[in-house]
Recover the amino acids of this structure.
């Protein structure tokens, strides 16, 4: 029950952050897109992105120091698996123009059918891969 | 300077939200995505909270006509459901289900000091750049094919 409440509350904070960014700069809080913009800097469109990413990292530092239990240990540590997962997330979010934040939160909140389809697809794909991985490794 | 304070604070609040919600704990994420095990539905409520708040706030924000800093609200206008959208989302979901990290929580979790998380973020950045290079090569080869076609058409005349 507390887990559901903290999920709702944490989600609400994410909604506040996304609304704040839209109110302040008129931008979508899509993290994969913002991060890619930092990797591929364009004049006049990079500093705000860097500032947002620094905010994310500062939030991470605050969590790691004040409530360390919130930053969980990685479940998978095999470097090859992590590399494959990272590459899939990197290529996939660019090809599909967004991730959990841009499509899942911002897109669905403005009732974009495109984002709804993307979200249903990545959740389904995540469920299939996580479930198969668990079944194949023998541990559930 | 003030213009940069907004996105910094938005990133900070976003990170605290992810942490409070449990999204920066990959065992919880995988516990949500793995339906064969001891399924934990709690993380589904993160989206309920986030979408709920954002959907309620959005009409009031957009009614202002322009953001506090800037002239326009930059909202994606695309409506097309393309093979790229589906393929990209499916690939992203696969990576998410494999390691339990999507981009936001991965960036936030680097603060935990785990080399595994850093390796994930580096691989994710490599994947994004790989896609970008692929797009450029594809566009170049398309332009090249079009050029050759035009040349042949001129030669045939």
């Amino acid at each position: 029950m507390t887990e559901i409440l903290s999920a709702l509350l944490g989600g609400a904070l994410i909604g506040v952050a996304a609304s704040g960014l839209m109110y302040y700069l008129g931008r979508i809080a899509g993290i994969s897109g913002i991060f890619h913009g930092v990797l591929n800097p364009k004049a006049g469109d990079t500093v705000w992105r860097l500032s947002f990413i620094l905010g994310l990292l500062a939030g991470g530092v605050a969590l790691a120091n004040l409530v360390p239990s919130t930053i969980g240990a990685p479940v998978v540590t095999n470097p090859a698996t992590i590399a494959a997962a990272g590459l899939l997330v990197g290529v996939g979010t660019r090809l599909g123009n967004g991730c959990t934040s841009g499509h899942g939160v911002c897109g669905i909140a403005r009732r974009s059918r495109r984002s709804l389809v993307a979200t249903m697809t990545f959740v389904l794909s995540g469920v299939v891969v996580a479930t198969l991985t668990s079944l194949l490794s023998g541990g559930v | 300077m003030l213009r940069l304070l907004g996105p910094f604070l938005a990133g900070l609040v976003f990170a605290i939200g992810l942490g409070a919600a449990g999204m920066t704990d990959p065992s919880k994420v995988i516990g949500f995505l793995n339906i064969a095990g001891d399924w934990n539905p709690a993380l589904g409520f993160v989206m309920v909270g986030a979408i709920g708040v954002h959907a309620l706030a959005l009409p009031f924000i957009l009614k202002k006509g322009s953001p506090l800093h800037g002239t326009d609200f930059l909202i994606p206008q695309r409506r097309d459901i393309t093979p790229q959208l589906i393929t990209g989302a499916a690939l992203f979901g696969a990576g998410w289900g494999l390691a339990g990290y999507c981009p936001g929580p991965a960036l936030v979790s680097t603060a935990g000091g785990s080399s595994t998380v850093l390796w994930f973020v580096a691989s994710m950045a490599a994947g994004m750049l790989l896609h970008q290079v692929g797009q450029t090569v594809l566009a170049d080869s398309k332009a090249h094919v079009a050029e050759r076609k035009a040349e042949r058409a001129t030669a045939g005349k």
Q: What stands out?
A: The longest helix of chain A spans residues 2-25.
